[in-house]
Amino acid sequence: MPTNWDEQYEKKDTPWEKGAPSPGLVDFLAAEPVHGRVLVPGCGYGHDVRALAAMADEVVGLDIATLAMEGADRFPKAGHERYTVGNLFDLPAEMRGAFDVVFEHTCFCAIDPSLRPAYVESVAGALKPGGQYLAVFYLDPGNDSPDEGPPFEVSLAELDRLFLPRFDLVREWLPQRAYPGVQHPARRGLGRRREREGQGGHGYRRPSIAKSIGSTWTLECSILSRNLGRRPVERR
Ligand SMILES: C[S@@+](CC[C@H](N)C(=O)[O-])C[C@H]1O[C@@H](n2cnc3c(N)ncnc32)[C@H](O)[C@@H]1O
Fold first, then answer.
1. Does a structural domain hold residue 87?
2. Which helix or strand (DSSP H or E) is residue 126 part of?
3. Would you say residue 71 lies in a domain?
């Protein structure tokens, strides 16, 4: 059954709400400021929106839950941010092709996996050509079965399958921090190792096994750049 997100906020049944931006985003922004127009889909109370708004030109937080947007609006402004109630899968015309960056954190893992192809189309459609999609993915939220969720798990292979037809992978890395209290032993193999050497920044390393960040959930950060319809890159 689809989640009734407003009901979750009404009941205050919001285990994802940590009162702070994603540590992976905070660390990224400390190293690389983000500029331009930014969209944060499924932004909840908007902690990530405000972290981005402290430096970006304009940040739009989008959420399907009215109560989330009302809650986000109650926080002091950090910059040029605004919040809007809306469905990521039905973006208004003014949000199409309008953003330099889309930042993802706990929206992808919250939606039903059957909607993932539509999710990719939506975020690609929100970006300007060449715009960037910056994501913190939850690979292994520690569920007992792959069907359990939200949050739903995702494999690296599925991320490739979903995103590479529309995006070029710019960089990927394991975040060094997660929220305190978001802890679960990482326990599953995560597929084959892929490395691109010598490209600096946060490193381009995919984990060969789920060990690298100790006792937190298994996370991955990626930057993908919207491509112009090239065929998926063949990689070994
Ligand atoms: C797990 S919560 C994460 C919230 C926020 N990113 C955070 O980390 O605090 C998922 C959020 O996605 C929102 N959401 C779910 N489906 C959506 C959709 N189709 N369009 C926009 N927002 C959606 C929910 O209302 C909820 O606030």
1. no
2. helix 116-126
3. no
* Ligand 1: centre distance to CA 213 (Å): 25
Domain count, the chain: 1
CA-proximal residue: ligand 1, atom 12 (nearest): 42
pLDDT band at 29 (very low <50, low <70, confident <90, very high): very high
Q: Which domain holds residue 201?
A: 23-34+94-226
Q: What's the DSSP call for residue 60?
A: E
Atom of ligand 1 nearest to the CA of 65: 25
User: Which residues surround ligand 1 with Cβ inside 6 Å?
Assistant: 5, 16-17, 41-44, 62-65, 68, 87-89, 105-107, 110-111
What's 201's domain CATH number?
Answer: 3.40.50
Q: How far is CA 93 from CA 88, 105, 109, 125, in A?
A: 12, 23, 25, 10
Radius of gyration of the CA atoms of the chain, in A:
17
Confidence of residue 171 (pLDDT cuts 50, 70, 90): confident
pLDDT at residue 103, rounded to an integer: 96
Judge whether 204 and 171 are in contact, CB under 8 Å: yes
* Residue 51 falls inside a structural domain: no
Q: What is the tens place of the pLDDT at every residue in 212-231?
A: 333 345 667 788 887 755 44
Nearest atom within ligand 1 for CA of residue 151: 1
Q: Is 153 within a domain?
A: yes
Q: Which residue from 11, 45, 63 has its CB within 8 A of the most atoms of ligand 1, so it is best to mutate?
A: 63
